[in-house]
Amino acid sequence: MAWKSEEDYNLESEFWNPEEGDVLEGDVLLVKKGNYEKLFMIIEDEDGNSWITTQCARLDFQIKKMKIEEGDIVKLTYNGRVGENDAHDYKLEVWEED
Question: With contact defined as beta carbons under 8 Å apart, do 12 and 64 qualify?
Answer without folding.
Answer: no
